Amino acid sequence: MSVIEQKTKKNKAGRDIIIRTAILKDARDIIKINKEIVQEGKYMLHEPDEYKPTMLKEKTQIRNLRNTNGSIYLIAEINKKITGYLTFKKGGVRRTSHLGYISIFIKRKYREKGIGRLLMEELTEWAKQNPEIEKLSLLVFANNKRAIELYKKTGFKTEGILRKDMKIDGNYIDSILMYKFV
Questions:
Q1: What is the pTM of this model?
Q2: Residue 137 pLDDT > 90
């Protein structure tokens, strides 16, 4: 099972942030966060009209990541409210089982408050304790400067650029592939 012990950490402002593993009852709040972020229309893969979440899909993802060694679903919360989350999905075949891909989502009003950094640090600590995980990878839109700064601050390096990887409103955006060895 891929779980962590719940931890209370301090963000930049000294506020208590709970970092824990996702549970099934989080599904509804996670969907709400995703809907908010998709509506912003900036850095998500889905367009607002394409995002069609269901409780079943989200609960299945939570269950699958909990039950897959080398994968994890982390939640950040303040005052019992989910403020963001991170998923790490391990490669599905032997040749990629030493690495996994990160997705991270923070509610707008909680950005730039250190929550993303806390989630990334917790993932790194968890990965260091997991002998099968050697490499953390992620893709980020090249115009998402805030996220790129976060990743660099937490030790990620640029591995490559996927030119014209996304097309939004007729405009192309590159994606940056980043990595960190643990």
A1: 0.94
A2: yes
